[in-house]
């Protein structure tokens, strides 16, 4: 049976605490099962304007969905309904809560021991010494089509990979039905009701509601309420056995055409395209990028980058 909870169901668990940069709240939507680490964990994080969550990583793949307000992750503006995915051991941040405060869901298919901050030298060296680490992250906005006569499915273009990673946004018209994508080839699927409501098992679940569907549970039947339904469908990638090490690689390329990669989060600086948002013109060789420049995804400094190698 899928697990499902609406904000109304769980709001009594909302816990407040003071942090150095403001007030923080946490509301648990789906709790991991006792003694079963392979179980879903979903909670809402909220905070006052100016709250900062420092750059960190986790031991497991994770989705985050912005549900209210705004802010910044690294150098990326966050807006409502934006979906951020980070593979395990991929640092991201800092997250700075904006003027309108910020609320986001954290979604996992596996219980996680908690944030591991890059400022801790032990955590940083853990990252640098892990074998077969495949850091990767991306943020993408959904597309909802509320005027569709029945149902409309949009497939995310970046949050997609051969290992089962996939994300969709789906709109269902008022009182209509649609099947969500089959989670069979994933490591578990989240359904996030972000607008309207869902009828399920004799109840109505209004936005914001969160459901977790296991891979073997089949496509979830979405029955929209009278105002229709917008839902995010988020598939976790399967665990993939690491491939043998690649052939030796060599550096190549003339200044202005090389690429440089963040050793921490795998972000790539491409000299050909530069970073126009940061005032770094296309064609700028790495040596001429200001020393004050830092990684847009994890805020690492220039010294954390190495020249990317090609075969
Ligand atoms: Fe980085």
Summarize the SSE layout with pairings.
Elements (H helix, E strand, L loop, with lengths): L2 E4 H4 L4 E5 L2 E9 L10 E7 L4 E2 L2 E2 L4 E12 L2 E3 L4 E4 L8 E14 L7 E2 L3 H9 L7 E4 L10 E5 L10 E7 L4 E3 L9 E12 L2 E4 L2 E5 L7 E15 L23 E4 L5 E3 L34 E3 L4
Antiparallel strand pairs: 1-18, 2-3, 3-4, 4-10, 5-10, 6-11, 7-8, 7-9, 7-10, 9-12, 13-14, 14-19, 15-19, 16-17, 16-18, 16-19, 20-21, 20-22
This protein binds fe (iii) ion (FE).
The site of fe (iii) ion has 8 residues, from loops.
Please summarize what this structure is.
It contains 2 helices and 22 strands. It is mostly beta strands. The strands form 4 sheets. Strands 2, 3, 4, 5, 7, 8, 9, 10 and 12 form a 9-stranded antiparallel β-sheet that branches. Strands 1, 13, 14, 15, 16, 17, 18 and 19 form an 8-stranded antiparallel β-sheet that branches.
Structural write-up:
With 311 residues, this protein is mainly β. The chain has 3 domains: 3-140, Jelly Rolls (Sandwich), CATH 2.60.120; 151-235, Jelly Rolls, CATH 2.60.120; 259-307, Rubrerythrin, domain 2 (Single Sheet), CATH 2.20.28.10. 4% of the residues lie in helices and 41% in strands. The protein is built from 2 helices and 22 strands. Strands 2, 3, 4, 5, 7, 8, 9, 10 and 12 form a 9-stranded antiparallel β-sheet that branches. Strands 1, 13, 14, 15, 16, 17, 18 and 19 form an 8-stranded antiparallel β-sheet that branches. Strands 21-20-22 form a 3-stranded antiparallel β-sheet, with no helix packed on it. The structure holds fe (iii) ion. Fe (iii) ion is lined by residues 262, 264-265, 267, 295, 297-298, 300. Fe (iii) ion (FE) is lined by residues 262, 264-265, 267, 295, 297-298, 300.
